[in-house]
Design goal:
By secondary structure, the chain is of the alpha/beta class. It has a single domain, classed as Dihydrofolate Reductase, subunit A. Helix content is 30%, strand content 28%. Strands 1, 2, 3, 4, 5, 6, 7, 8, 9, 10 and 11 form an 11-stranded mixed β-sheet that branches. Bound molecules: NADP nicotinamide-adenine-dinucleotide phosphate (NAP).
């Protein structure tokens, strides 16, 4: 039997150097949201990479913890043109009910927009990825649900810390596509949630060509300015 394909984690982190500690920590969140104000370069990278299917007719999946789902602005969730897989231990059914209600509303909005666009362009054929959402009670359950679904494209694990950690515990190859975020003034961002890997010792740094192949667009690994911050996209593979 072929080993399962490596899973790709996508994350934006900022390096922190806690006083008295020798190792760097990689901050990813603060008070249920991101530690930094909107970074256009990273948000559009995330949107393009996670929503662009490998072939027409497929839809990518994004696996996330319930808290990360909640951190997406209500008007944008579930994220369009992707299958959101929300992992929650909730047994009351309220998480599932909430997600499915939001899915219905979101699909209505997307359908209205598509009808308006078709009226202008005269084109009615639609090979766009679908917008879907499911709720699963474990990471294994999430992966099994995706395996049994037709037309699933790439699968990305999009956080947060608890779900990244669960992914790293799987007997499976893992790739990390990481946006490094630093402030231009050198000040650290305040963070209360951290990526479960502090240093990538024991991992292999991927070349720009490999990362470009994983994400489906050219990534050059160079730092880019975006307002008060600079960002750099890099990749690692667990060996
Ligand atoms: N920088 C980035 O790229 C990035 C990406 C994503 C998120 N974030 C940030 O990270 C923070 C959220 O991370 P987090 O670690 O607190 O939360 P999280 O991983 O997003 O969600 C945690 C929740 O997911 C469910 N869950 C987690 N592991 C599970 C498992 N193995 N089985 C079943 N359910 C499981 C539970 O939901 P229930 O409580 O419903 O049971 C748990 O409370 C936020 O600040 C967010 O903005 C940053």
């Amino acid at each position: 039997m072929q080993p399962p394909k490596p899973l790709t984690l996508i994350v934006a982190t900022t390096p922190l150097f806690p006083a008295g500690e020798e190792t760097t920590r990689l901050g990813i969140g603060l008070k249920g949201t991101l530690p930094w104000p909107r970074i256009k370069t990273d948000m559009s990278f995330f949107a393009r990479v996670t929503s662009r299917p490998p072939t027409a007719g497929k839809t990518n999946a994004i696996i996330m913890g319930r808290k990360t789902y909640d951190s997406v602005p209500a008007s944008l969730r579930p994220l369009a043109k992707r299958i959101s897989v929300v992992v929650s231990r909730d047994t009351s059914g309220s998480v599932k009910e909430g997600v499915l209600k939001e899915l219905e509303k979101r699909r209505e909005k997307i359908a209205t927009k598509a009808a308006e666009a078709a009226a202008v362009s005269g084109k009615t054929e639609n090979v766009e990825p679908v917008t879907d959402a499911i709720v699963e009670s474990s990471l294994d359950g999430a992966l099994r649900a995706l395996e049994s679904k037709a037309d699933v494209g790439k699968v990305f694990v999009i956080g947060g810390a608890e779900i990244y950690n669960a992914t790293l515990g799987l007997e499976r190859g893992v790739r990390v596509v990481m946006t490094n975020v630093v402030r231009k003034d050198g000040e650290p961002f305040e963070c209360d949630t951290f990526f479960p890997v502090d240093s990538f010792e024991g991992w292999r740094a991927a070349s720009s060509e490999e990362v470009s192949e994983w994400v489906g667009e050219e990534v050059d690994g160079q730092w880019k300015d975006d307002g008060d911050v600079k960002v750099q996209m890099v990749g690692f593979e667990k060996v």
